[in-house]
Amino acid sequence: MRSCLPDYELVAPANLREALALMAGEPGAWKPFAGGTDLMVLLEAGKLPHKRFLSLWHLRELKGIEVSPTAVTLGALTTYTEVLRHPVLQQEFPCLCQGARETGGVATQNRGTLGGNIANASPAADSPPALLVYDAELELVSATGSRWVPYRGFHSSYKQMDLRPNELIARIRLPRVGRPRRHYYRKVGTRKAQAISKVVFAGVAEVEGGVVRDVRIALGSVAPTVLRCAKTEAVLRGHPTVESTVAAAQAALAGEIAPIDDFRSTAKYRRRVSLNLLAVFLQSCLGTVEQGPGPEPWYGA
Amino acid sequence: MADNQKAVGVSVPRIEAREKVLGRSVYVDDLRREGMIWGKVVRSPHPRARIVHVDVTEARGLPGVVAVLTAADVPGDRYVGPLVKDQPILCSSSVRFEGDAVALVAATAEEVAETARDAVRVEYEILEPVLDPIAAMSPEAPQVQAGGNVASYSKLRRGDVEVGFRAADVIVEDSFSTQMIDHAYLEPEGAVAEVDAEGKVTIWVCSQYPHYDRQEVARVLGVSLARVRVIQTTTGGGFGGKFGSPLVSCYAALLAARTGRPAKVLYTREESLRTTVKRHPYRIHYKVGATRSGKLTAVEARFVGDTGAYLVVGRAVVGKSTSHGAGPYEVPHVKMDGYAVYTNKAPAGAMRGYGVPQVAVAYESLLDELARKLNLDPIEFRLKNVLREGSQTATGQTLLHSVGVAETLERAADARREMTPHLKTGKPYLKRGIGVGVSWHGIGAARSPSQATAYVNLCGDGSATVLCGSVDIGQGSNTLFSQIAAEELGVPLDQISVVTGDTLTTPDCEATTATRVTYLSGNAVRLAAEKAKGTALELAAKHFGCLPEHLILARGKVQVPDAALEISLTDLFKKHAVQQISALGVFSPDCTPLDPETGQGSPHATYGFGTHVALVEVDQETGAVRLVDYAAFNDVGKAINPQAVEGQIEGAVAMGTGYALSEGMIFDRGKILNPSFATYLLLTAADLPPVRVGLVEAPEPTGPYGAKGVGEPSMNPVAAAVINAIYDAVGVRIRELPAVPETVFAALKTRQPLPADR
Question: Is the dihedral of CA B140, B143, B148, B151 positive or negative?
Answer without folding.
Answer: negative
